[in-house]
Amino acid sequence: MFRKYVIGGIIILLLLCGGSKAQAFIVDLSDANGQGFFKDQATGFTWMDVDNFLGMSYTDIHTFLLGSDFHIATFVEIEQLKLAAPADPTLFDLHASIMGSSPTVNLIWGYYDEDGNPNDGGSWNFKWGSNPFNQPTDVWFTPIGSGTNQTFSNLGGWAVNTNLPRTPVIPEPHSLLLLGQGLLAFIAFNKKRAR
Fold first, then answer.
1. How far apart are alpha carbons 71 and 78 in whole angstroms?
2. Tens of pLDDT along 144-160?
3. Upper half-sphere CA count for residue 9 (Cβ side, 13 Å)
4. SS3 79
5. How far from the centroid of its chain's Cα atoms is residue 122's Cα?
6. 149 secondary structure, DSSP code
7. pTM, to two decimals
8. What is the largest CA-CA distance in the chain?
9. In Å, how far are 35, 98, 146 from 80, measured between CA atoms?
10. Alpha helices, DSSP H, located in the chain
11. Upper half-sphere CA count for residue 131 (Cβ side, 13 Å)
């Protein structure tokens, strides 16, 4: 009889764990001093909303961030952010509302530091919700060498704080596994005590 419960519990646990995937995501944070922020759950980094920097050049953004815990994001940091905000047309509007976006085009775009040296300029990286033909797409695109002192009224900047204490996120399948192990241990303990 006990063996039936254990086998049934294992089957239920495998069904629960097998169908779920841990998905990193982004979370909107409270605004502070008129600036918007969001958190990237893939890395635990805090980002400033892209639209905090609309109409500023790369050099302006770099100067604005001096003395703060934020810096212009590097190529590697942008690539990590893509794990939490994947290109998915169904999520573009949500991502735009969290990360900030262009007020005139269907873009989330901003300057980033392409080589890790903020003093020599950067490029821009963008995520768009529809292509120039208004077909729904959601694509991350990273041109190289876009220029540093150009300004566009709808171009912002990617600013990240990587110094905050990072709390590890327990992926969902592991949480379910721990719950299942606890339930199995509870059942086994009760069965043993009942004998």
1. 12
2. 555 556 777 888 888 99
3. 19
4. helix
5. 21
6. S
7. 0.67
8. 78
9. 22, 17, 21
10. 2-18, 58-65, 75-84, 92-99, 172-194
11. 8
Kindly state the tokens that stand for 72. 């212009």
Distance, in Å, from the CA atom of 63 to the CA atom of 70, rounded to the nearest integer, reads 11
Q: Which pLDDT score is estimated for 21? A: 45
pLDDT for 79 equals: 85
Q: How many helices (H) and strands (E) does the chain have?
A: 5, 9
Residue 78: the pLDDT is 86
Please report the pLDDT score of residue 142 as a whole number: 58
What pLDDT, on a 0 to 100 scale, did the predictor assign at position 65?
A: 93
Q: Which position has the token pair 């086994």?
A: 188
pLDDT means over runs of 10, the chain (195 residues):
60 53 75 92 90 90 91 88 82 87 82 76 68 53 60 84 63 63 77 73
pLDDT at residue number 20: 43
Return the CA Rg of the chain: 22
> What contacts 24+ positions apart, CB below 8 Å, involve 136-145?
136/89, 137/89, 138/87, 138/88, 138/89, 138/91, 138/92, 139/87, 140/82, 140/87, 142/75, 142/78, 142/112, 144/114, 145/114
What residues form DSSP beta bridges with 113? 74
